[in-house]
Amino acid sequence: MLKTLGWCPGNSLQITVVDSAVVVHPHPAGIFVVPPRPYLVLPALVRRRCGIHAGDRLLLAADPGPGVLVVHPLAALDELLVAHHASLAGGEHGERESG
User: Fold this and answer.
1) For residue 33, how many other CB atoms are within 10 A of its CB?
2) Contact 62, 69 (CB under 8 A)
3) How far, in Å, CA of 74 to CA of 44, rounded?
4) At 22, phi and psi to the nearest 5?
5) 51-71: b or e for each residue (b if 16 or more CB lie within 10 Å)?
6) Taking a C-beta distance cutoff of 8 angstroms, is the pair 20, 52 a contact?
7) For residue 39, what pLDDT is reported?
8) Against a cut of 0.85, is the pTM above it?
9) pLDDT value at position 84?
């Protein structure tokens, strides 16, 4: 995935937490660096803020255009899907017309 994003060892990165997701992108003043090995380690503080624990499964979404990686904990995706499915069933947004 790092290769797809065009990230090379030594590139500076910025890591930001947005809600329960982690957004990683290249930034000249970034304090994080792409390691020599082809994987990325999220800092402990970031993992704690997002509720990510050792062994958790994550969804990684890469957008090669701007070179952005978004990391979603599966628990957060579960919450999003429950809310979305409730709205499809006429929950939060009311009854929907059938076509």
Assistant:
1) 12
2) yes
3) 18
4) -110, 125
5) ebeeeeeeeeeeeeeebebeb
6) no
7) 84
8) no
9) 78
